[in-house]
Amino acid sequence: MVKEFFMYDRCAIENAEVWRLVSAHLVHLTPMHLGVNVIGFTVVYLISRKYVSGGEFITKSVIFAIAISLSLYLFSPEVTYYGGMSGVLYALAAWLAIIVSEKKRAMGIAVAIIFAVKIGYEHFSGSIVVYDGFRVITDAHLYGYGWGLFFGLIRPLFRRKDGTAARLIG
């Protein structure tokens, strides 16, 4: 199946199938899983348009996908397979919460806290989250949230005095 060729597969990545670091976040286990993630991605994108360019949004989505996959690989060896966009959604939400808090502090902080509480519940409740018959890899949520906060917090370091984004290359 095509899905298996693109999923995060620890053994395949160890055998140089590095495209899986990105493609795993585009593969979904069921149509419902895909639908929920597409709705979430669309909502986050529509909110982001007020604060960041489409190019910055897509670039960060790819960076987050790679960072999450590498984090799963390095820090969650028990995760042998992964597919889905939820980790990237958590990263984008955390990143945008920091950006939004620059102008609407209370709203940005509230969003960050809501996601932190949800992640804390997932990790410390001891419950195994099952979605559509599959175990949710909550580590992807945790890593995504962490990477989103990190990139949100360092973003001002890459801004010019006039508020525009500094080009890092070229």
Report on the structure:
The protein has helices spanning 2-6, 10-14, 20-23, 31-48, 54-75, 86-101, 105-124, 138-154; strands at residues 8-9, 81-82, 130-131, 134-135. The chain is mostly helical. Strands 1-2 form a two-stranded antiparallel sheet. It has a two-stranded antiparallel sheet with strand order 3-4. The radius of gyration is 16 Å and the shape is globular. It starts with a helix and ends in a 16-residue tail after the last helix. The relative contact order is 0.15.
Shape: globular
Return the structural class.
mainly alpha
Oligomer: single chain
What's the mean pLDDT score?
88
List how many beta strands DSSP finds. 4
What does the secondary structure layout of this molecule look like, with pairings?
Blueprint: H1 2-6, E1 8-9, H2 10-14, H3 20-23, H4 31-48, H5 54-75, E2 81-82, H6 86-101, H7 105-124, E3 130-131, E4 134-135, H8 138-154
Antiparallel strand pairs: 1-2, 3-4
Helix pairs in contact: 4-6, 5-6, 5-8, 6-7, 6-8, 7-8
